[in-house]
Give the backbone structure.
Amino acid sequence: MIDAIAKLRENIARVFLGNPAAVDRVLVCLLARGHILIEDVPGVGKTVLATAVARSIDCSFSRIQLTPDLLPTDVLGVSIYDRTTGEFVFKKGPIFANIVLADEINRTTPRTQTALLEAMNEATVSIDGRIHTLEQPFMVVATQNPYEFEGTYLLPENQLDRFLMRTHLGYPSPKDEARVLDIRPANHTLPSLEPVLHKSDVVQLQSQVDEVRIDPTLVEYIISLANATRSHPDLQVGLSPRGSLALAQAARATAALRGRDYVIPEDITTNIHPVCAHRIVPRSGLGDMGVETASRVLDAVIRSLKSPV
């Protein structure tokens, strides 16, 4: 497993320079069968990172450029009448891919945003009363710009909860930015990036993550964390059981990413903020208006709990 992951990291690093922590978070979501929301200002490499991950795996890949006029059928697909057969034929939409890049997801309407919900949660799509199963592996990598930018729509809470992680990239260091300026004028490496793993390899890695052991004391720590958020006076909504499950699965994937078949406390604590912050709702504000409060509350909860040994 560790050799396969090393190949992925190395291949992605050819085009996405710096910020290995962001790369690892995307890979954790991939191994955990989760989806990731990458939020940051324009131009810091959100789309490059998502595309690099997809191109590094020999699987189907689609990019959905989300706009205000995009319809749910543009994402899921539509039934078209075939005059030669006299029957309706289902034409699959871009959601029918192993890795789907939903670019600028908060620039489309809530109606279209919710079209992704069933696919992200159940890996199925319901059209005209028929259920279509999506091929594995299936992962949505969504990007969005901060809400203070014009022309954006607030993601509903139930959609945010479908993402295993929500993360930020930030600006590159001066050294990494200099490397970007040096490499990009010379050649465009992203279109020529070759896959280093097959989709069957990814499915096998995901199965290995399921076998990673997590000690009962660490399970108890996760439950204590969730209960502490549910009773915290600064929160309207604490961490749900789905959130607890997501944190445990992210910890397993992190352990596998680091070459272990068992979870240690650090695998949990490093994932608390990216997995939990977007799932809790502070009293001081709803949705993204309370991101800083959510982060502060999580820090306080972590300090209040006895560290697992």
